[in-house]
Automatic annotation (TrEMBL):
<feature type="domain" description="Aldehyde dehydrogenase">
    <location>
        <begin position="16"/>
        <end position="479"/>
    </location>
</feature>
<dbReference type="GO" id="GO:0006210">
    <property type="term" value="P:thymine catabolic process"/>
</dbReference>
<dbReference type="GO" id="GO:0006574">
    <property type="term" value="P:L-valine catabolic process"/>
</dbReference>
<dbReference type="InterPro" id="IPR016163">
    <property type="entry name" value="Ald_DH_C"/>
</dbReference>
<dbReference type="Pfam" id="PF00171">
    <property type="entry name" value="Aldedh"/>
</dbReference>
<dbReference type="InterPro" id="IPR016162">
    <property type="entry name" value="Ald_DH_N"/>
</dbReference>
<protein>
    <recommendedName>
        <fullName>methylmalonate-semialdehyde dehydrogenase (CoA acylating)</fullName>
        <ecNumber>1.2.1.27</ecNumber>
    </recommendedName>
</protein>
<dbReference type="InterPro" id="IPR015590">
    <property type="entry name" value="Aldehyde_DH_dom"/>
</dbReference>
<keyword id="KW-0520">NAD</keyword>
<dbReference type="InterPro" id="IPR016161">
    <property type="entry name" value="Ald_DH/histidinol_DH"/>
</dbReference>
<comment type="similarity">
    <text>Belongs to the aldehyde dehydrogenase family.</text>
</comment>
<dbReference type="InterPro" id="IPR016160">
    <property type="entry name" value="Ald_DH_CS_CYS"/>
</dbReference>
<dbReference type="InterPro" id="IPR010061">
    <property type="entry name" value="MeMal-semiAld_DH"/>
</dbReference>
<dbReference type="GO" id="GO:0004491">
    <property type="term" value="F:methylmalonate-semialdehyde dehydrogenase (acylating, NAD) activity"/>
</dbReference>
<keyword id="KW-0560">Oxidoreductase</keyword>
Amino acid sequence: MSQSVPNIKLLIGGEFVESQTTEWRDIVNPATQEVLARVPLATADEVNAAVAAAKEAFKTWKKTPIGTRARIFLKYQQLIRENMKELAAILTAEQGKTLADAEGDIFRGLEVVEHAANIGTLQMGEYAENVAGGVDTYTVQQPLGVCAGITPFNFPAMIPLWMFPMAIATGNTFVLKPSEQDPMVTMRLVELALEAGIPKGVLNVVHGAASVVDAICDHPDIKAVSFVGSTKVGTHVYQRATLSGKRAQCMMGAKNHAIVLPDANKEQALNQLTGAAFGAAGQRCMALSVAVLVGEAQQWIPELVAKAKGLKVGPGKDNPDLGPVISCAALDRVKSLIARGVEEGAKLELDGRGVKVAGFESGNFVGPTIFSGVKPEMAIYHQEIFGPVLCLMAADTLDEAIAIINANPNGNGTAVFTQSGAAARKFQEEIDVGQVGINVPIPVPVPLFSFTGSRASKLGDLGPYGKQVVAFYTQTKTVTSRWFDDEASSGKVHTTISLR
């Protein structure tokens, strides 16, 4: 392990501190294998200290006027915009995605920050006058206390920005655990958040792996946990956190399908399918990793392969079409699943395993890969590959294609490509998936709405950002009041429940 690279610090009580752990991991540039920094696996005492700082800060932060909170996020969005290029460069170096895609990662998080600045109208209760004789009822949405977030490697800017801005804007304090694979851009965003005016202890950061995740799930002073990541870890987090009495929202794995009908605009459909399948090297929970070609659309495979062949693979800093996958282990897993697809009888239309990038021979590169003739029982279909691999399936009718998607346990996102309004309406009504695109390949909603993955892709009732996350991060308190004048105060005693 290199000793010449910087150590990533923890943020506890408003101070960036060196961890006292004996366990460290290297942060590696996936295009070059260069070690960029070391990240600590925080100790139990450090996690406890972060939670204690957040708990103490909550005493005053919860009483901070809502306008003051909103203005911090107005400043924060400005700072993110001013530092966009620097943030993207950091993200690309440690995660591998292209500079253009890195800016997109940051921008989609920035939109949530802008939404948080509108908290004054989002966190409003309800009021009803004279619900009974002289009785008024109203609700207020109060913060929960200390909340926590656990974020994945594939969107190290966007997903932390899904979490802590909305939690803090609603009056909570926060403990963030970024991915230990690429925490550098997250930490830079945290620095900018403090510069924007977030007070000491309101935002804290701990790094680590399984033991830190468990500590967050178990800590009695943490009231809610938000998670994005794999199905295996997300299921563990949800069960462990809820068992200890916490609220939890867990966005997990996916196998997203697109239906391509023969009446679709061919050029647009193939372009969008290619981009959605192979962008970010397939490392998106909303990637379109399966296309169901209906009827005559099955004849479009050669043109789809030609478009995929035309994509450029390289280091993210050069802004190719797709960069490397995150790690050597991820590369090995993707290659092994491609080999298994061949063994199980799928037709390998395009093999990306042999891609070479001049000057970056040690990078974790795999090119666009396409299988046709894929069946539901194959590993490449029922496992989330998380690489640039597109599975093609065939169907004779829209009904058959819908049945294929609804039989899959996941429900993160889906899309249909068609020029038929009737077909689109049938699809959106009958498909059992939380987020639906109609000629939109990656239907992640803007922050006015909430991320609404469903079925095996989500645990918890309320999704990230939008109106749902305001409900997640607040407790509704209902107040029923009656005020008497002096003459009415000497009235008859009532022993019934009615207020009339």
